[in-house]
Amino acid sequence: MAGSGVADLAGRVLADRYRLHAPIGTGASGRVYVAQDSRLNRRVALKVLHAALADDSAFLRRFRSEAQLAASLNHPHIVTVYDWGEDEVPFLVLELLEGGSLRAMLDAGQRLTPSQATRVGRDVASALEYAHARGIVHRDIKPANLLFDEHGVVRVADFGLARALAEASWTEPAGAMFGTARYASPEQAMGVQLDPRSDLYSLALVTVEAITGRVPFAADTAIGTLAARTQRALMAPPELGPLAPIIERAGQIEPEERYPDAITMGAALADVAEALPRPAPLVLAGMQDHADPHPTTAQTRPSALLFDQDASDKTQVAPAPAPPPRGPRRPKESDPRRLVPFFVGLAIALVLALVAVALGHVGGKPVPVPGLVGRSEASAFAVAKTAGISTKVIAQRSSEDPAGTVIDQQPAAGGWLHGGGTVALTVSTGPAPVSMPGVVGTSAFAAAKTLTQAGFLVQPVKLQYNATVPKGAVISQLPAAHATVPAESKVTLTVSNGPPPVPVPDVHGLAFNAARDQLVAAKFQVQQVKEFSDTVPKDEVIRTDPPALQKADFGSAVKVFVSKGQDLVKVPDVTGLTVEEASTRLGNLGFAVNPMHYKPGRDVKRQDPQPGVKIKRGSTITLFL
Predict the structure, then answer these.
(1) With b meaning 16 or more CB within 10 Å and e meaning fewer, what string describes 23-39?
(2) Which of 315, 337, 544, 548 gets the highest tally of CB atoms within 10 A of its CB?
(3) CB burial class (10 A; 0-12, 13-18, 19+) of residue 226?
(4) What is the pLDDT of residue 343?
(5) Nearest one of 563, 560, 557 to 507, comparing CA atoms
(6) Residue 506 above 90 pLDDT?
(7) 259 and 132, same structural domain?
(8) What is the pLDDT of residues 189-200, one digit of tens each?
């Protein structure tokens, strides 16, 4: 289980319910087990996360939130989350799938045809459409997170886990980031805000790898991989056939140039599926441990072609070839020439024996030289000591390898040394220092692109209010511009969020023009709204929205409500009308009616207030019949 950062917990019972059996997958963030749910008497997959995460409050807070959200997802192409919890270590309980992951298929040498990849991509897009509609961005679409049931139906795993891990202060083992970087979108490389279109970019990369076996833009380092994606759009290889236009649109650098959403990309894949041949059944990897970063599937043995409802139910099996016919044996013949190789070999063996004896007298028994290049200096020393030889560092020089890594050895691996001999090592001092570009004053997106292309890793930006630097521009950078720093250093950008909020001036009781002047002086935009008021004289300010003295965004709009005075209406003359006609006319003007001694059809003899008087709308008028 190399690569896992968690102890083997086989045999443990978590939450007094889940008994862990054999581990079936490992990764930098945790380990997956087949487990038995004793309460429901069913087998499940249980993912135990790294023990160090149990002490990380930021991670646990996000993990609880994301786990609840993931458990609420109910879709045929999303791995079902049955339960989650924390029993000394955080864990997730998932449905147990038996087809393995796409990662395991690719590692076994299996490649998808364009027809198969289109079907898988269409189903993944359907899962993303469902999740995106609920405000969930996966952030880590990769082959290890695409799992299959025993019928070859794909499910997407680990919704929400990438976002929770992003908030963890725990650092994964060296190299763990590279698995995610292989499928990261350009905006992930530049540390800017992600949206659903980031998942579509990753799906395009996975589709290319599924068909060709190669990940686009993959470089020797994570930084190199990320930088390449910010420089050019994805170009589909010819093996993709009709899929190429879809992959190239989803693989654009700018999110605005990709498909707007997963449903549009899914529809495009469905159109291509109709033009392609019917896909053959997938050759599934089955339940084996392929050291996937996020597996949730148990595996027992490589699977043969499984039933596929769209495929023929007959499988052609080629007969084993018959052994070649054996002819009659020829009698052995004595030939003096057959003895020559024997005598030559004997002579060589005697010479080698004499040489070995001589070397043994000179410097001890010869031993093979192990391969030490690529190891740390301490590891190289330990390996050489086990082999019975010693090491000596004779040179140090800068290289792309991490500091302390052996980059050359003499003699080379596979050579021979006498026991107690010495291997001369050359050790890396790390990449040569480079000058930090200056990006202060540029936009956050342009700054991140410049730094990424220069080989630096941009941290998520920090927003800060600033009255002088335009919103979205870089205020400062750390390390500073032109500083000499190690290659692939992390850079933190502080970006302006514009001027800080300011309180709204109190303009109550002022004339509108005076109120407007004060608000404009405070850099607010002004919108006038007139309304009636029984208490504020006409043309004076009643109130503002936002209210006076409350802080509002700099330069935002403030509504100023100005009094039109009381809402007065002239009373009409309704005498001589029937009580019904008078009530309708007065009601249309907003008055209440009080008829005295009401009888249907009676005429109005007198009214109070008298006709022609102006009174407040809503007042009551008494009718005398």
Answers:
(1) bbbbbbbbbbbbbbbee
(2) 544
(3) buried
(4) 53
(5) 560
(6) yes
(7) yes
(8) 777 778 999 999
Q: Decide if 268 is inside a domain.
A: yes
Residue 301 in tokens: 């043995």
Query: In whole angstroms, how far apart are CA 313 and each of 148, 301, 308, 309, 320?
Result: 20, 22, 8, 8, 22
pLDDT (tens digit, 9 = 90+) per residue, 307-324?
232 333 333 333 334 444
CATH number, position 3: 3.30.200.20
Instruction: At 373, list the tokens.
Output: 């290049």
Which of 83, 123, 140, 401 is the catalytic position?
A: 140
CB-count burial class (<10 Å; 0-12, 13-18, 19+) for 537? exposed
Answering whether pTM is above 0.85, one says: no
Same domain membership, residue 446 and residue 463: yes
CB 372 within 8 A of CB 383: yes
How far apart are the C-alpha atoms of 577 and 587, rounded to whole Å? 14
Residue indicated by tokens 């579509």: 200
Residues whose CB is less than 8 angstroms from the CB of residue 336 and which lie 6 or more positions away in sequence, other chains included: none
Q: Which of 415-429, 510-524, 554-568 has the lowest mean pLDDT?
A: 415-429
Rounded to whole angstroms, what are the CA distances from 366 to 88, 152, 353, 390, 410? 52, 54, 13, 14, 16
Q: Is 506 a catalytic residue?
A: no
Backbone angles phi, psi at 437, to 5 degrees: -65, 150
Cα-to-chain-centroid distance, residue 406 = 34
Residues 293, 3: Cα–Cα separation, whole Å: 9
Q: Residue 297 and residue 24: Cα distance in Å, rounded?
A: 7
Q: Which amino acid is at 135?
A: G
Contact present, 101 and 153 (Cβ < 8 Å): no
Question: Which residue range(s) make up the domain with 405?
Answer: 366-428
Give the CATH number, domain containing residue 218.
1.10.510.10
* Side-chain half-sphere exposure of 216, counting CA atoms within 13 A: 29
CB neighbour burial string for 407-437, b if at least 16 within 10 angstroms, e if fewer? bbbeeeeeeebeeebebebbbbebbeebebb
